[in-house]
Design the sequence.
């Protein structure tokens, strides 16, 4: 029998809390810790609380050509596992064997040298994968065309927006012909059209017989791309099997579980120039509604763009809200405050929805949190008829009227 492309045997990872994990940590993280500390709940410390097992005895194999989704709640250990597989961090115990060239896209700009241009980083990434210059040159035009950064190809990537970095990063990872492709949730940073192109490209990669490990909160994407899923919970594998069965088990397990306070969330992306520290909502079908986002910044904030995405717990998008769409420009806002999104009339059908939050400051990604909160939409008599739309016909209802026109 052919050996697996990925072998994971009894892998565990322990972090010591309260100690510096990364000697090259960013100044922004230190500043952010000071800003957010008043909003965190304090707890007595013990020797047990000063260590965290992010993974514990994780074992499974992935065979060549398989497309496997890794799913689980925030903090389940998904990103830690991918960092171990990508050789970004070492396991505390256990063993990982990767058979083939590995390309990873875990965070915005991962694997890029910020001082080098986009052109130089394409060649650098290819060299890291073990490709010859002639191979990289053969794929170069395809990479650039897919990423749509041709105008900025000779600009240092540190000057790229987060969206540009993601486009180039994914294009490099997918086009340089790795045997194993590892992709984390970072694709959600891109716009909807780019996400569709990425999913289509990943489908092409799977048809070419390459191995893909895909982490996402979007269960619809996992179900469409993957034939198998692995469910992590508290750092352990609790399910491994057919994608539909494992996804259903995951959704059933999270339906009634609360989401951690956004101020305490560490599974977020961005510079930290602005971070969300609280979310409140009051939403009712057909009634005046609002979502309030409390935030804290490192200084006075300029040219701020914020967007919200509401989706079903399965990850199917329902509503997109953004200040740049409505023309409510935040040219300059206070260091600490609350952003309020107001609805004259709610159109979402009653139910529980997941909300993603995303914010840029001067075009740079500042904060992005997936499944940042659960929003419950209450029932309401939108049409004044005393009747509520039946379940099972989508998630949005529109204001509408009916009439009959005489034939002829």
Sequence:
């Amino acid at each position: 029998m052919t050996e697996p492309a990925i072998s994971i045997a009894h892998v565990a990872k322990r972090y010591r809390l309260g100690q510096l994990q990364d000697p090259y940590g960013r100044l922004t993280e230190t500043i952010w810790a000071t800003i957010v500390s008043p909003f965190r709940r304090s707890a007595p410390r013990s020797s047990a609380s000063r260590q965290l097992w992010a993974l514990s005895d994780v074992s499974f194999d992935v065979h060549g050509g398989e497309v496997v989704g890794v799913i689980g709640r925030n903090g389940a250990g998904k990103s830690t596992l991918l960092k171990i597989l990508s050789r970004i961090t070492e396991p505390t115990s256990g063993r990982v064997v990767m058979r083939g060239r590995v390309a990873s896209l875990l965070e915005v700009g991962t694997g890029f040298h910020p001082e080098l241009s986009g052109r130089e980083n394409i060649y650098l990434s290819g060299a890291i994968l073990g490709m010859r210059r002639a191979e990289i040159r053969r794929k170069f035009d395809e990479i650039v065309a897919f990423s749509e950064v041709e105008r900025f190809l000779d600009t240092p990537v540190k000057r790229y927006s987060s969206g540009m970095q993601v486009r180039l990063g994914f294009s490099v990872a997918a086009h340089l012909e790795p045997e194993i492709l590892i992709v984390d949730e970072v694709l959600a940073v891109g716009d909807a059209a780019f996400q569709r192109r990425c999913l289509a490209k990943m489908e092409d990669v799977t048809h070419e017989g390459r191995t893909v490990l895909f982490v996402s909160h979007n269960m619809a994407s996992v179900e469409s791309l993957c034939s198998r899923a692995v469910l992590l919970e508290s750092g352990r594998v609790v399910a491994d099997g057919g994608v539909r069965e494992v996804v259903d088990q995951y959704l059933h397990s999270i339906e009634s579980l609360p989401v951690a306070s956004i101020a305490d969330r560490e599974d977020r992306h961005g510079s930290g120039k602005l971070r969300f520290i609280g979310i409140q909502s009051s939403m009712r079908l057909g009634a005046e509604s609002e979502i309030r986002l409390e935030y804290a910044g490192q200084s006075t904030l300029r040219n701020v763009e914020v967007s919200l995405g509401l989706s079903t717990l399965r990850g199917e998008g329902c509503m997109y809200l953004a200040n740049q769409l409505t023309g409510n420009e935040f040219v300059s806002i206070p260091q600490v405050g609350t952003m309020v999104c107001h609805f004259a009339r709610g159109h979402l059908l009653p139910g529980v929805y997941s909300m993603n939050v995303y914010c840029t400051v001067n075009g740079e990604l500042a904060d992005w949190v997936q499944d940042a909160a659960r929003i419950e939409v209450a029932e309401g008599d939108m049409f004044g008829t005393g009747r509520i739309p039946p379940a099972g016909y989508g998630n949005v209802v529109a204001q509408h009227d009916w009439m009959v026109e005489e034939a002829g």
